Give the backbone structure.
Amino acid sequence: MALPTEEPKHRRILYQLTWLAAAMSLGHHIDHLIRGNAVGWPVTSEVNAFTASLVVYPIIATGLLLYRAGRVGPGFWALVSGGGAVFVSAVHFGPAAVEPPELILDHYDPPILGWLAFTWLVTFATVLAITSLYETRLWWQQRQARPATRSADSEVTR
Amino acid sequence: MTATTPPPAAANQPVQPRPSGAPASGVGGALVLVGTRVALWLGVQLLLAGVLVVGGATPAGRALNDAAGWWMVYGALVDLGTLGVIGWLLRRDGRSYRHLLGPPAAGWQVALGALGVLAATVPAVAFGAEINKAFYGDATPPMLAVIDVPPLASIFSVLVVPLLAELAEPVAYLGVILPRLERRLRRSWLAAAIVVAVWAGEHAFYPLLTSHGSLDLGFAAYRAVSVLPFLATWTALWYALGRRLLPIMAARWVFNGGTAVALALGLVG
């Protein structure tokens, strides 16, 4: 059974936010590659957080197909965005960060490029968090609307 | 899980209702509000500096910096003035203060939303910490280091000022100014960008500090830049939460109140 769909405006915003997050993720991975100080497989033989983070692209691609088919809704995207926000924040800003801000700020010459890359990262993590909250709100509204829709359907078929 | 869900009966309504009809005061009211806040920040600090000099409490050359030590206390006057202007605008438009806070939400929804806002602000905190380091290394930023008030004023700055700040500042920028700019410009992103820039710019005025006999413009620039990621995040969250202000006000209260408590306890500064 396909999930109930959101209003067109919310679907459009959800798509836009998803593409924005994907583009920002790609940009951050390019930053990793340029710096070369926090990369893993397939660039090097080490499997690390960089390697694990690449899984986001097949997840997004699959999610977009399933969302288009109505098999997943905002709740799925809220989990993906929220999980991404937690992962990125933990890896870069958390108390046990494996790649603290210094690894970005101190590895560019001129330093302004390091600040640009760091600003990009902060914006990326913030976009993920805000997107997750937005999608959570849509998911909750959809949940609230479902019983109302069901009772309306049963009134019609009675 | 969200803090922003309208009650079930309203679930099919548009998520981001815009106020119907343009308010009588329009963008002019927004300008009055920003102007009042900046004028009050400047005026109250200068007035206090004058009082300190006339009272013989400080030499003229140090008066501005000594007055700056009270900025977390006299901020209450700025916020009271802001609330006065908001009340005046609301009376002109025939609207209520509650109307500015956005669609209704239950207490638990506001609390959960505030947690979400706090979590979403983590990257801005990390960015702010790096900006602090870039400007001042490991030293306490001047606007906190300069604080020097007696215990009673500390208690006031912990209990009253953060609450007043939340009732005034975000309501002014997100509840009053941003919707008016949106209506005028018809582009939400542009209106939001202007509001964030102006809101950050206002921070350059509190407190004013002097260094080597002239205004410390580096500090003013630091103030504006260091708050940019926070203000951008909260403005974006205002949209993400369906234009609801209460979760943002609650989260900001935790931030600002926490800072005031840390200062009062001597944990920073």
Remarks:
- Chain A has one domain: 8-146.
- Chain A touches chain B at residues 7, 10, 85, 89, 92-93, 101, 105, 118-119, 121-123, 125-126, 129-134, 136-141, 144-145, 147-148 (CB under 8 Å).
- The mean pLDDT of chain A is 90.
- Residues 73 and 91 of chain A are 28 Å apart (CA to CA).
